[in-house]
Each structure stands twice: as C-alpha cells, then as structure tokens.
Amino acid sequence: MSMYGRDPWGGPLEIHATDSATDDERSRNLQELDRAALDETQQSWLLGAGEQKKKKKKYVDLGCIIVSRKIFIWTLGTLAVSAVLAGLITLIVKTVPRHHHKPAPPDNYTLALHKALLFFNAQKSGKLPRHNNVSWRGNSCMDDGKKSEGTSSAIKDLIGGYYDAGDAIKFHFPKAFAMTMLSWSVIEYSAKYEAAGELAHVKELIKWGTDYFLKTFNHTADTINSIAAQVGSGDTSDGSTTPNDHYCWMRPEDIDYTRPVKECSSCSDLAAEMAAALAAASIVFKDNRAYSQKLVHGATTLYGFSRKQRGRYSQGNEASVFYNSTSYWDEFVWGGAWMYFATGNSSYLKLATTPGLAKHAGAFWGGPDYGVLSWDNKLTGAQVLLSRLRLFLSPGYPYEEILRTFHNQTGIIMCSYLPMFTSFNRTRGGLIQLNHGRPQPLQYVVNAAFLAALYSDYLDAADTPGWYCGPNFFSTDVLRNFAKTQIDYILGKNPRKMSYIVGFGNHYPKHVHHRGASVPKNKVKYNCKGGWRWRDTSKPNPHTIVGAMVAGPDKHDGFHDVRTNYNYTEPTLAGNAGLVAALVALSGDKSSGIDKNTLFSAVPPMFPTPPPPPAPWKP
C-alpha cells in the first residue's frame, strides 16, 4: 500500500510504508542538520562583518546555468551598447547620400574606334540593312554583275560589297586586304571589341565583305578558271567623256550608267589575298560552323587557283593606275599562313615557310619599302603572323629555321620604326614617313602602328619584356609608345591641331573627296555632269562621313582641305581597316592583351618531327 502526496517544489511525493524511516533515524538526521546550521552560524560570527560581506557572492539562476550577477549585468550592457551602435551605423549608412563612382570615360582610341567603323557603313553597296546608321545613304547599284557582257556563267550578280573610296568602284584587291585586316584585329582583340560594344558590329561588317567575295567566283567548286577583279571603271586617261565612276560625280544611289565587270584568269595576287580574307574570316566565325566551313572551302578553292594560274591581276588593265600589284609572292606567304591557321593543314605551313617563296617575296634583300605593310605588300604582316606561331607554339623542325628568320626580321622591322633609327624620316610634327614623303601617308602609318602594338602584346603574352636592336635592349612599352604617338598625331596632336578622322574632335576635314557625302540628298537626281557643281564648290560637304580617315598631310605636316585634291582628302577602305586595327589594339586596358588561342583553334597539337639522323661516318 502506498500514499501519494504533493511535493512543495511542484513534483509528486511518493511515500512507501515499508521504506519509512524509524523514529531513531529521523531524530538522528535532525540533530545533524541542527549541528551543521550551528557550525555555519559560528563561522559567520567568527569571520566578522567585512570578511563575511567579501565572501558572500550573488548569482543569477538562468535555468540552465547559474552565473555571477555582475557578469550577467556586464553582458547585458555590452549587448545593449552593441545593438545601439549597430543601429546608429545602419541609420548613418541609409541617410548619408551615396556617391556612385562613375566608370572612367572611354579613352580617345575607343571613341575614335566607334567612328572609324561607321565609315564602312557609309561605303556599303547594294541593298542596305535596315539599321545602317548612315541617314544619307540608300540602296545603290542594284544591277552590278547582271548586265555585264562577257562574264562567266558562275557570276550571276555582284550586288553588295563595298565601294573602295570616294568613288563607286569596287576594287577587290584592296578590299580583300581590308577584310583580312579587320578579321585579324577581331581574332586578336575580340575582348576589346566586346568591351567597346563593337564586336557584333565589326563581325557584321566582315560578313558583308565575305558574302560579297563568295559571289565573285564559283565558291561551290573545287577548281575555278577565273574570278571577278573589279566592278566599275575609272579610266579617264584618254580624254573620253563616256560616263564612268571617275568622270561622273554622282551619288551612288543615282548611278544610271553601265558598270563593267573585269574578270581575270591569271591573278595569283588577287586570288591569294581573297583566300586570306576568307580564311581569316572563317576563324572569326568559327562558332557558326556551317558558314565557317563555307568560307574555308572558298578560300581553299581560291588559293589553289592562285598557285595554278600565275600572274598579276593588274597587269595590262586600268587597275595598274589605281592599285597596281608589284608581286604575288608576298600573297603566297601571307595567304599560305592564313590557310594554315584556318585549316590546320601543315602543307600550307610548309608552303608559307619555303625559303624560296620568302626570297622571291623580298624577305632577304630589304629595300626602301622593307617593313611597310600595305594593300600591295603583305610580307611584313606575314612575318609578324608567323613570328606569333614560333612564340607560342614553336613547331620546331622542319619549320624552325625560316620561322626564326622571320622572327629576327620582325625584330629588325620594329627597330626601324623607332625614332633613334634612320630607316624612315619623320615630319617635324613626328609623323613617320613610311612612303618616303609621297602622298597619302596615313594608310601606311596606321598599319605600322597596329603591327607595333600587336607585336608588343605578343611579347607581353610570351612573358618577354622586350627585344634587341643590335646591342641595345628595348622594352615592349617603347613599341606601344611608338604606336600611340602616330595615332595621336592622326587624332589631332599635330602642328595643325587637326584630326584626320572625320567627325572626331572639333577640327577635322570638311571637304572630303567623296561623292556620296558631297552631293546633297534633296530628292533631286543629279546626272553625271550635274554633280560637278558639288565637286567644285568651296562649301563644306552637306553630309559628314563620320569615321573616314583622309589621305593625310604632306611631308611638311601641311594639309589642304580641298575636295578636288584626293591626295589630301580621300579616304579608302584599306586605310580605315588599318586604322580600326590600330585603334582597337591601343584601346582600353593594356592588361587585357591578345587572345592567345583563337588563332590556333584549327591547328592540331604540335609534335615536332625530330631532325633526321646524321649521315653515317665514313673514314
């Protein structure tokens, strides 16, 4: 039997009769408690009031733990102060006005790049895209190639492409070089184009050119017998009054005269340059596999044609007056290099590094124009391009000897650009005279600026601080500074304080030698001679051809802003392509550098072939 009671502390109390203590045991327990209480009372009396106060501490029971009251109060105080401080900081952060740091404004090279690309929009022929961003241009020359007599059946139409300069002729030789240069700059500096917001734009410009080139020959065939070399005519040397693209001064949209097409069957230089343009573009569009392969096939057909049908495209025709080609050997090296990078086929590299080809191209004999990259001579571009291969992939035998030669020659060329060497004169304003004082110097200057900036970036990417000019060592910054001084001159840092890029800065040419920009768009169709009044007027052009780089100053830093003097005021596709390349190379942050890998995207892994063993020893 058991009884249940209530524990005064809140718990149940169970009492068992069998377990109850005896009276003696309870009495003994009470006596022990009384004795303990007495001992405590005596102890407190003996210690005294001061020591008793010192010994006795106060505690706070938190349920799960018992802590000193003093520590508890300090903890609470600390938490309270921390909460107040956090609140004050939050209040200050939310109430104090924030000053957002604006990103640094674009540098002059980036600003000029935006404008320089627009020039290509103004040069488009054919049916223009909806958003061409040049208000005074429209569809033009919509019958090109359709009504031409004597053209091959493979050429069905030649609508589209670009006009070369201030006229409406489509010269395919310099245009192909222009497209190659644009593609090269995109392959090396796609990140910079992206940062400037121009990558999609420049790729659209390249595609506009390559789509047109695919019309100039049977691009679906493996072998061809001819290609179109030129649309339109500009020969006025015989005093003829027959309307053509130089005799007449008309807006392209108003052209109503016949525009002949010139084909060639022995034009190694043109075919190899067009092959280079398509091959380089195939790397730009490598993410569009179908289009890239289409370009590679066309390039392969063209390069094979160039090797089979030897000859200069300009020999015996009017192209020799405007864009005369002096040789096709440089295009063999240049085109072969681009074909290798586009296909990875080592036979192209073997061809491009053949010493005999380099010798015929002038790699070993120098000359006054050695080291000058232009629409006519691409040897310097090929030397730089193949030096890149040696720097980053080092293919070794059997290419090493000629690649080392090209690499050394590239270093010598870079030395020749520096002011402490006398290979080229300079104007008093500092412009290098790569064409030795002849007219239209800027197209050569921008190409050299591009190569210098690019080679500087190659060395930086290869962790090479510089290069030697004889016994003297120069850092990569020296090359970049050369490029900057030349481009700065063009942008307005020159004795005339004039920008030679139309629309850049406040002082630039207003009488550009350009038919479309000089004839007003006023719903009046001016005939062949009717536009002469706009050619000869002293008034500024009614339209600003933004981004056009004019031909440039003379060797005395002089410049005549006269529409009829094309040696000063005419822009060209090839010139602007070099300008775009130089501007993007110098734009933005130097640390972004080049894209080391994209150029080699089609190149297989390098496993150098060991050199052959020495001949057996004979006593």
From TrEMBL:
Enzymatic reactions: Endohydrolysis of (1->4)-beta-D-glucosidic linkages in cellulose, lichenin and cereal beta-D-glucans
Keywords: Carbohydrate metabolism, Cellulose degradation, Glycosidase, Hydrolase, Membrane, Polysaccharide degradation, Transmembrane, Transmembrane helix
Positions annotated as active site in the UniProt record: H513, D561, E570
Domain Glycoside hydrolase family, chain residue ranges per copy: 109-583
Positions of transmembrane segments: 71-93
Disordered as annotated region, ranges: 1-26
Single annotated GO MF: cellulase activity
The enzyme's E.C. designation: 3.2.1.4
Xref: Pfam families: Glyco_hydro_9 (PF00759)
Cleavable signal peptide: none
Swiss-Prot/TrEMBL GO biological process terms: cellulose catabolic process
Domain of life: Eukaryota
Enzyme class: hydrolase
Protein name per its UniProtKB record: Endoglucanase
Source organism of this protein record: Phaseolus angularis (Azuki bean)
